[in-house]
Amino acid sequence: MTTTTATTLKNFVNGEWVTPSSDTLKERYNPADTREVVSSFYQSTSDDAKQAIEAAEEAFKTWGKIPAPQRGAYLYKIADLMEENKDELAKTIVMEEGKTYNDAVKEVGYAAGIVRFYAGECRRMKGTILEGDMPNVQIEMKPESLGVVLVVTPWNFPLSIPAWKTAPAIASGNTVVLKTSSETPLTSMKFMEIVEESGIPNGVVNHVIAPGKLVPEMIHHPAVKAVTFTGSNPVGKKIYAEAAKDMKRCLLEMGGKNPLIVMEDADLDEAVQLAAAGAFGQTGQACTATGRVIVHEQVAKAFTEKLVAKTKALKVGNGMDEGVDMGPHVSSSERNSTLDFIQNAKEEGATVLTGGGVPDDPNLQHGYFVEPTVISGVTSAMRIAQEEVFGPVISIIEVKDVDEAIAVANDVEYGLSSAICTKNLEYMNKALSGIEAGIVKVNMTTTGTFFQAPFGGYKQSSTGTYKELGSEAMGFYCQFKTRYIKSK
Fold first, then answer.
1. Distance (Å, rounded) from C-alpha 134 to C-alpha 158?
2. 283-318: per-residue pLDDT in tens?
3. Are the CB atoms for 414 and 256 separated by under 8 Å?
4. Considering all CA atoms of the chain, what is the largest pairwise distance in Å, rounded to the nearest integer?
5. CA 152, CA 45: separation in Å to the nearest integer?
6. How far apart are the two ends of the chain, measured CA to CA in Å?
7. Residue 109 vs residues 161, 247, 452: alpha-carbon distances, Å
8. Hey, is 468 helix, strand or coil?
9. Nearest-5° angle of CA 143, CA 144, CA 145?
10. Whether the Cβ atoms of residue 394 and residue 290 lie closer than 8 Å to each other
11. DSSP characters for 346-392?
């Protein structure tokens, strides 16, 4: 029997809630129980998107001139409101995206921390003074805002990723048009309610519920000066191509096939915990998820036995239920993609040691669940070792030494995150310098980042031109003017 707690959603444009003008009504279901309708909404049209961009363009005329510390005051208020509404935001994320309540609470806290960090950056923005070649000449490097920034975000971190792009954008004096995923529009609306309550001037942050096909048109609007995107490689490459047509600034953070190396001297209990957390946390639906575990042959058997036992003990279910370790996929298409990868791995000769299918629990039959899965006998030549699964699957690859482990780690087109488990300083140094990834960790999971540190990948994981998070992220949202001043 279908139940509904549905909220009818609207765009947030120029400080007002506006119903999109499309006449096609869509519904979003709870991925843990698709009998529950979570929200309903109309998709935006070209005119709706244009309205949002023009509102941001008009707001920029004054917002960009407001002193940065005053902009920071609004960000502090947004962070405070996130924390005050932590429970409601977390429950919305669980109901709409499917992650566990504990993971959702962590996401809200992380998002608030990001916003507060960039509020502080508003008092740390600075230029540079250089010596001139001539007497009485001073050279200044002065950061200036760009204008309207188009922010395109995915569904897997529906609050924190919009926050980590929007916060530095407006801290730098830009205005924003946010186009979030149609899988998680309710979380986006909750974010906009907080933005509205903060009292930030109308038009500084705008949100449209829109299909992806509108993004190229939005990029080409003359008022849009930059676009930042997190999501899949195929979509990212299309956005990059469109931005290049107008020579617009573009920042992409995309997929990963992240390795966890387990050496023969590793603490195996710790390594198992790190592997499980990295692969099964967020149902494996993270760009930094542990996609491969590369294990030294001397400890492969013992490690695998411990990992299988750990995996079998995990409880799968609705993220709001007590004791649940892993929730559902966000959609049927994502679940089917994961099941297809598992089947393909078996066809190529790998062995599923545990999981590999849909749970047989009748209480889970209406959700997009997949069992946490461990696969052995994987080689780098297999599809499952090369492509991003985006589901709760660990592929185990055995190696003879640290050099082979690093070579296998690098034998993919991605280079986002990585980690090694070892007590050996030589192994650590080889991994830290030899792995081709934007993030390399020692005795930690491949997932999780600190927002004060820069984030970004190598190779096909990123455009590589700018970083996200940390003070370094501000560089994407600023242009630097060189000013020569001669005194008499």
1. 53
2. 999 999 999 999 999 999 999 999 999 999 999 999
3. yes
4. 84
5. 16
6. 82
7. 13, 36, 14
8. strand
9. 130
10. yes
11. HHTT-EEEE--S----GGGTTS-----EEEES--TTSHHHHS---SS
Burial of 64 (0-12, 13-18, 19+ CB in 10 A): middle
pLDDT, tens only, 36-79: 999 999 999 999 999 999 999 999 999 999 999 999 999 999 99
Distance CA 251, CA 168 (A): 13
Token pair for 147? 């204008």
* Other Cβ atoms within 10 Å of 308 Cβ, number: 18
- Residue closest to 422 by CA, chosen among 436, 432, 408: 432
State the catalytic residues: 287
What token pair was written down for 144? Answer: 């200036």
Q: Is the dihedral of CA 131, 137, 142, 146 positive or negative?
A: negative
Q: What's the pTM value of the predicted model, to 2 decimals?
A: 0.96
Q: Measured between alpha carbons, how far is 203 from 233 in angstroms, rounded to an integer?
A: 31
Residue at 478: amino acid letter: C
How many other C-beta atoms are found inside a 10 Å radius of the C-beta of residue 374? 27
Measured at the CA of 209, the angle between CA 206 and CA 215, to 5 degrees, comes to: 85
pLDDT band at residue 1 under the 50/70/90 scheme:
very low
pLDDT digits (tens, 9 = 90+) for 195-212: 999 999 999 999 999 999
One-letter amino acid for residue 277 of the chain: A
Find the helix or strand (DSSP H, E) in which 35 lies.
strand 33-42
Distance CA 407, CA 411 (A): 6
Paired tokens of 126: 């600075």
Report the C-alpha gap between 328 and 103 in whole angstroms. 13
Give the number of other CB atoms < 10 A from CB of residue 346.
14
Give the residue carrying structure tokens 């078996």: 346
Ramachandran sector of residue 199 (left: φ over 0; alpha: ψ -120 to 50; beta: rest): left
Q: Of 272, 234, 161, 276, give the one whose Cα is nearest residue 387.
A: 234
